[in-house]
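Contributing new records

If you add data, match the layout below exactly. Sequence lines come first and carry their own label; structure lines follow with theirs. Keep one chain per record. Anything else will be rejected by the validation script.
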Amino acid sequence: MTKKVMEASHAIAEAIKMIEPDVIAAYPITPQTHIVERLSDFVADGELKSQYINVDSEFSALSACIGASATGCRAYSSTSSQGLALMFELLFITSGMRLPVCMSEVNRALSAPINIWNDHQDAISCRDSGWLQFYVETGQEAFDLSLMQFKISEDKDVLLPSMVCMDGFTLSHVYEPVDITTKKLVEDFVPRYKPVHAVLDPEQPLTQGPIGFPSEYMEIRYAQCAALNNSIKTIEKVFKGFSDKFPVQIKNSRPERYYHVEEYQLHDAEIAFVAMGSMCGTIKDVVDRLRNRGEKVGLLKLITYRPFPKDAIKKSLKGIKKIAVLEKAISPGVGGVLCDEIAGVLYKTDTQPDIRSFIVGFGGRDVKLDHIEKIYEMTKNDKGSKEEWMF
C-alpha cells in the first residue's frame, strides 16, 4: 500500500479507477463534482479504460447506467442531493430490475431553501428504494467501501444496486492520509463482472423490466426484498475478506477492519451515542474526553444502513441503559428515522434502554464538541423531550 494525502473525493475516484467500470455516466453537481471531474481526467489521459458518457441530467445518468448494466456491463455513477432526487423514479427501476449499478452519493441538503452543504436527508429519503446504503466517516472508508460495494452488489445472491454515502464538504473536500492499494490486489479481490442474466444475446432472448401483473408483482417484490435482507451475509463475507486482504488496526474496534457497525469504547458503557457519517469522528473525541472524567460512555457507528443490521445493533447495544441517536435527517410528522429504527430493533429486548433522538447538522450546521457534550448531559440527566433539535 502507498499512503497519500488526498481529498476524500479523489480517494473515491482512485478506487473507481482501479475497479475500471465499463461505463461511467454522471452529471456534475456540487459537492460530488470532484469525483467525476477526476474520473474524466483519468479517461482523457488514458489511465482509465471506461466509456465516459456526458449526459444532460442525473435522470439521464442513471438511465444510461441502467441500459449499460442491462447489457451486462459494470456501470457507475455519482450524485448529490437534487441530483439524487431527480433519479428517484429510476432508483426503483434499477433495484427492481436487479441491476448491480454502483454509485457514490455525496450527501447534501435538499432544497428549498437552496443549500449546498451537508446533511443526510437526500439518501435517507431513498432508503426504501431497494438500494444498499453504506455511510463512511473518513476518506479511507470512502476508498475502501467504494471497492467493496462492487463485489457486494455484483454477487449472484445479491444483484442489487448500492450507494456509498459520504458527507458533502465536511468530508468530500477534506484532505486526509489514505492507504491506496495496488490495482493488482484490487483485481484479485474484485474480479471482472460476469453477468448472470443481464446480457443481450439474440440466441437467448430475454425481457427485462416488463409489466408486472397483480398475479406476479408481489412475488417479484418479495424476491427483491429477500435478496436485500439476505445481502447482510454477503456483506459480512466481503467485509471479512477485505479485512483479511488489507489489514489495518482500528483503535477500540473489532478485530475485523470492517463490520456493519463499529464499536468505540462500548465494552463497559452505560450510555451510548449512535450515529452515521463524518460526525462520528467528533463524537469519538467527546467520548475520549468524557472517559477521562470517569464517564462510562461509548459510540456505536453504523456503516451498513441498508440492509439494517439488526442483529449487530442488538449485540452492540446489549446492556446499554441510555442511548442518544444523532442524525442529520428527519421524517416530518414522525421524527428521527434512525432513532425509530433503533427503537424498533431494541423493542422487547432484555433491557429497555431510554432512547432519545437528537436532530443535528442540517444544511451543513457544525456539529461541535460542546453540542455533543450537551447531548450527553441531557441524555444522562433525562432533560428535554424525547426528540430535540440541536441548534
